[in-house]
Amino acid sequence: MSGAITVAVALTALPVFRRYGDRLAVLLVVLSAVNLALHAVENGTLLSMLSLSQQYAERGGADASLFHGLGAVVGSARRWAHFTHLLVVGSWIFTLFTVLWRSTLVPRPLAGLGMLATVLQVTGVPLRAVLGLEVVAPMAMPLAPVYVAVAAWLIFKGFEERQRSIAR
User: Fold this and answer.
1) pLDDT at site 166
2) CA pair distance 157, 117, nearest whole angstrom
3) Per-residue confidence (pLDDT) for residue 65, from 0 to 100
4) pTM of the model
5) Phi/psi at 41 (nearest 5 deg)?
6) Please, where are the H alpha helices in the chain?
7) Is residue 164 in a domain?
8) What is the domain count for the chain?
9) Nearest residue to 105 (alpha-carbon basis) of 10, 16, 9, 28
10) What is the C-alpha separation between 135 and 127, in angstroms, rounded?
11) What percent of the chain has pLDDT over 70?
12) Which of 78, 114, 159, 167 shows a CA-CA span of 20 to 30 A to 41?
């Protein structure tokens, strides 16, 4: 569901965002499609882990060394799929806040905080994991209140559309 939500947001907002820049609006749609695909891959790796653990349980722990080896492979595939997915969804989020900043459809301080929080999340979690460094999960936390603030703004105020569009 969460992968499909990014596609729905990007497609729903596309007509509005295109008025402020075709490239960023289309990039948002493309990143949402890539996000959806990577979400499916990540879910596939989770289901592989589930299948492997069920096989292990059905065999009563027989051939434990074989299952431990397979577990390491399947777990590693899941980890790489997860962090690759997080890099792409982070790029999507950053692009969304960039469009909101550029268009001033929400107050710039909100959009700016969103871009900053996204950079913190990406550098603290997936980028560090890909580089083999320890993940700093608290760096992802500032994104949550910014999301809530932007969502509340959009629910109560909507887009503050300007009369003229930014040059494409």
Assistant:
1) 52
2) 22
3) 79
4) 0.84
5) -60, -45
6) 2-18, 22-58, 64-103, 108-124, 126-130, 143-156
7) no
8) 1
9) 16
10) 9
11) 93
12) 114
